[in-house]
Design brief:
Elements lengths: L10 E8 L15 E8 L1 E5 L3 E6 L3 E4 L6 E4 L5 E8 L5 H7 L2 H7 L3 E2 L3 H18 L6 H19 L7 E2 L6 H13 L6 H8 L3 H12 L3 H19 L4 H7 L5 H12 L3 H10 L2
Antiparallel strand pairs: 1-7, 2-5, 2-7, 3-4, 3-6, 4-9, 5-8
Helix pairs in contact: 3-4, 5-6, 8-11
Length: about 280
């Protein structure tokens, strides 16, 4: 389970820095709090029973209580975030007026990104909350409640949906979740279905069928989608050569990566880098 709020605490905010290689060692779920994190730097992939999605710098990730999740690197960049935990009781003055669906609307979005002007406002509110939390004041709690409410309203009104989130109609079983986590961590290796099936505890034939049923994609298709996601990230965030990127993301032959990328994205990696880097 995720670490609970300290005893007697209804709100907590911290600024975290971690190596880009850091992975949560296991699935976790909070029992007593909601969490919001603003990613200042880096790229992270979040795996839950009902979706897999990737957040980047400027994104907010929202996690409600009892949602099991696990995070892995989506790039080799070190990552930094401002992380908020708050209990339902902390926002009770507002939910008493607006109803519990107020929080449900926000935390059903998981991954949120913004237009530039809105992103700046979101980041400023996270920073204001961090600053106020570190001050000794008789009005600290009510100020934090007010700022958090302003942040939640901003998330509700100005966040953009994450079109790339991989939603699943049926929650994944724990063995398939474990397999996905292993694939996300080891995609750059010469990964075979036999190895991942062993991680899940199933025979290859049964694992292959179960994976297809739950994911809607075959093992090889999903592994390819993980690798292509990392290819996109490296094309935009580095000046590495196409060959180096292919080898770094698990494609044994650069030509295979280029043809697969063009088939899925509609342009070559070189064209993608040139086009996307020109966009505002």
């Amino acid at each position: 389970m995720a670490l609970p709020l300290p005893e007697g605490t209804l709100f907590q905010i911290t600024r975290k820095k971690r190596s880009g290689s850091y992975s949560m060692p296991s699935l976790e779920a909070a029992l007593d709090h909601y969490s919001l994190s603003y990613l200042i730097q880096g790229d992270r992939t979040i795996i839950t029973p009902t979706m897999t999605y990737t957040i980047h710098a400027g994104y907010v990730n929202a996690m409600a209580p009892y949602i099991y999740h696990q995070t892995v690197p989506a790039s080799d960049l070190d990552y930094e975030s401002i992380f908020i935990k708050f209990s339902p009781q902390f926002m009770k003055p507002y939910t008493d007026q607006l109803g519990s669906q107020f929080l449900d609307q926000i935390f059903s979005r998981f991954s949120m990104h913004f237009a530039e002007a809105s992103r700046q406002k979101v980041y400023s509110l996270f920073c204001d909350l961090l600053e106020v939390s570190q001050k000794e004041s008789a009005y600290r709690e009510i100020t934090l409640q007010s700022l958090l409410f302003r942040l939640l309203i901003l998330l509700l009104e100005e966040s953009r949906p994450d079109e790339k989130a991989n939603l699943r109609k049926t929650p994944l079983s724990p063995p398939i979740l474990e397999a996905i986590f292993y694939m996300e961590k080891n995609y750059a290796q010469n990964l075979h279905i036999e190895t991942v099936a062993e991680v899940s505890g199933y025979a290859v034939s049964y694992f292959s069928r179960l994976f297809q049923e739950q994911m809607g994609h075959s093992f090889s298709e999903y592994l390819c989608s993980i690798r292509l996601r990392h290819v996109e990230s490296l094309l935009l965030s580095t000046d590495k050569s196409i060959t180096d990127i292919a080898l770094e993301t698990g494609f044994q032959y650069p030509g295979n990566m280029t043809s697969t990328f063009r088939q899925k994205v509609g342009m070559t990696p070189r064209e993608y880098r040139k086009t996307r880097r020109k966009l505002p």
